[in-house]
Amino acid sequence: MHPERIVRQTPRKVSHAGRLVFLLSLCLYLTTAGGSMATDIMTYEVTKSIVERGSVAMSYDVFGMAAHRGVDGRYYAPYGIGHALYGVPFYLAGTTAERLAGLDVGKADAVGKASLAIGNAVAAAASVWLAFWFAWRLFGAIRPAILTALSLGFATMLWPYSKFGFSAPLATLCVLAGVYGVWVGVRHARLGMLVAGGVGIGCALLVRHELVLTAVPATVWLALEYRSRWRQFFQSAALVAAPIGAAVLVTAYYNFVRFGNPIDTGYLRDDTAGFGSIWLGAWGLLVSPGGSVFLYSPLLIVGAVAITELSRADRRTAILFGGVVLTLFCFYASLFHWEGERSYGPRYLLPLLPFLCLPLGAWFARPCGEFRRRAAIAGLICSAAVQVPGVLVDFSKVGHTPEVGYRSIEARRWDWDSAALVLNTQAAIRTVPLNVRYLSGAEPRPEVKVAEGRARDFSSQFAFSLDFWWMYLFHLRIISAPAAIVLVGLLLGLAAACAGQLRRLSIADG
């Protein structure tokens, strides 16, 4: 696992494989993108306000909560500024395209919101690309690096969440970038990568405040790597800490300007954002029908075993990975809303997924043993299948229709018939053949009701549709069925070409 053990390969060949992994992931994510902001409307409002008014205040009280009222009487999102800033170029691209094309897509903000959601497809694809490089650094071979990266991309919850406006994919990218930068900076003696690692963790803080906790296992790992070489430890720790410290100051200033308190993000006065029993949360995140990380990403069961084996080959790296996983798991288990609410699986846990997938690289390598390799492949296939219902239909639509009815939080957590996996699977079984008939012309498209004002039930009006942007455009009669099929065919054709080249690189590597 150490740098000196890495097999010498042409940097050009490895870089080419990394680009193909990114392009393949992006093509598939764009093909299956839906464009829903789900419950993250406040981020959209902040991004829109930054672009159109030069302010971080929202234009209205989105959720009707006094806790979001700032010292100046305006309303502010309790989230970090990072996701809203990241969304600016995507918002600009979407609104510019809408203006130039003269599109009228449902509600006035539909294209802007969809554009921000597309930003998450880019962040998710970048996470897959970075996982490829991390796996290659760990195992020194292209084939296991490709399989490890694609496992993260399409056999975990990262795939469904690449479709929505939640900050989880961007948070995953930032945490992965932070840990990767620190690891490479130490193992390859690259001071610039240590700074980059600090930037990654700092950006993670700006996206979700609690992700600064990943600095703790990173610091412990630095101490283990340097052992008694304290001068080197403090020098390296300072390089990592500087960008994190800058992010802390930005966050403190941002909080003070909005709420008059450098440590008040807006959650301190929010009764809905509290802590509960860590034991109940941990149990729910492990075994509940609505929030089990192993149910919604079964591959992680194999990954948990693989990380114990990694500890025998590279104990300190296993401690780093395990430390990140344990730190984030314990924090989110302690929250009252540990499952994330209105989610396809526990979305808060997305940033820890890479660190349970990366150890699988050893199992994907041919010398690892036939049983382990087959177990890893079987886990990949099974876990990818679990993602399909979450990709085909949007739980924020199909889980809240009149047919389903209101389900309490406890029911969505603990009852199988109210769990997202079950509801999405049932909806997909109904929706797929129905939409095939719509596309083929065997059945006329249903009329879509016009949304009025800020009605958030606009998304539920499309509960009959597959959760793909091209299907929405088809149902809105903006594009024809042949045009929708051609668009999808172009993206899938490009993805197939990338997959073919990756297969050839894998064979050559083997």
What order do the helices and strands come in, and which of them pair?
Blueprint lengths: L10 H21 L9 H13 L28 H5 L1 H14 L8 H30 L2 H13 L3 H4 L6 H20 L3 H17 L7 H12 L3 H30 L18 H10 L5 H4 L2 H15 L1 H19 L20 H4 L3 H4 L5 H23 L2 H4 L10 H6 L5 H21 L28 H7 L5 H29 L1
Provide an overview of this structure.
The chain is an all-alpha fold and 510 residues long. It has one domain (3-392). Helix content is 64%, strand content 0%. It is built from 23 helices and no strands. The protein has helices at 11-31, 41-53, 82-86, 88-101, 110-139, 142-154, 158-161, 168-187, 191-207, 215-226, 230-259, 278-287, 293-296, 299-313, 315-333, 354-357, 361-364, 370-392, 395-398, 409-414, 420-440, 469-475, 481-509. Mean pLDDT is 88; it is low at 1-8 and 453-458.
- How much of the sequence lies in strands comes to under 5%
Counted up, domains total 1
Could you give the count of β-strands? 0
Separation of the first and last Cα atoms: 18 Å
Mean pLDDT: 88
Largest sheet: none
Low-confidence stretches: 1-8, 453-458
Helix content: 55-70%
Radius of gyration: 23 Å
What would you call the shape? globular
Structural class: mainly alpha
Number of distinct helices: 23
Q: Element order, helices and strands?
A: HHHHHHHHHHHHHHHHHHHHHHH
